[in-house]
Amino acid sequence: MGLLKLGFHNQRLHLRYFIPESFNVTKSTFWIQNLTNNKNTKHLALTYTLRSKLEIAKALTLSTEEAVATAQPTKMVKAIRVYEFGGPEVLKWEDVELGEPKEGEIRIKSKAIGLNFVDVYFRKGVYKATTLPFTPGVEAVGEVTTVGPGLTGRKVEDIVAYAGPMGSYAEEQILPADKVVPVPPSIDPIIAASVMLKGMTTQYLVRRCFKVGCIDTILVHAAAGGVGSFLCQWANALGATVIGTVSTKEKAAQAKEDGCHHVIIYKEEDFVARVNEIT
Known about the structure:
It is a single chain. The N and C termini lie far apart (70 Å). A 5-stranded antiparallel β-sheet has the order 9-6-7-8-10. Strands 2-1-3 form a 3-stranded antiparallel β-sheet. The protein has helices at residues 53-70, 117-124, 189-209, 226-237, 249-257, 271-278; strands spanning 2-8, 14-19, 30-34, 75-82, 91-98, 105-113, 139-147, 159-163, 172-176, 181-182, 217-220, 241-246, 262-265. It is α+β, with helices and mostly antiparallel strands. Helix 3 (189-209) packs across helix 4. The relative contact order is 0.09. The longest helix has 21 residues, at 189-209.
């Protein structure tokens, strides 16, 4: 199957159709321009011979039917798009096309979308997206609305969460099925969408990079932040002594509530000297 450009000889009107490879297009009164990626045949005007108008019409009808039969259905959904790097003003709310999931993929309708500071880095261009324009966001929870061909383990109406693939600032999204995890009914989608990325970051810090235990003392910078608040709670639950640094008294109160045993306001005291005193 190749995408070819069709038009009647000596006319300006051209139509694009999907033409079956078995259909002999070189012996018709219309001419064909190949639009495939084959460098040897790209933009090659093929020769033509006279045929009847009836045969031309039949050929075009066959081509149209083939296009309808093979075209992937699409729908329009709303998404945030970024066409250039900059401040919040570069975020554009617009319609985008969304096709059907392929093998190994699912389509989800967003229920809650997580916001992370890394989204700002991508918007500003500190971290480079692979393409422009792009849809930011790396975390969300949604309901599965369609599953790809032959997919098992996921079904329509499943509630799933993910963190990692770019593009969560959208009403709907197509994702690899192996990148999502089920969300139990006991967990609100808003909670799930807010904890995936930060929760996984905390997990690898306290359980994989180093297994924190009751004999350990850890220092958490930005202890009242997203990952910091997770670290304080998790390390405290593991029995560790938690030292945290923050910038304000309000944040100090939050870190204390999250399980930080010693809170240092680094704008008011030397946190290095204070940590040495504590340890």
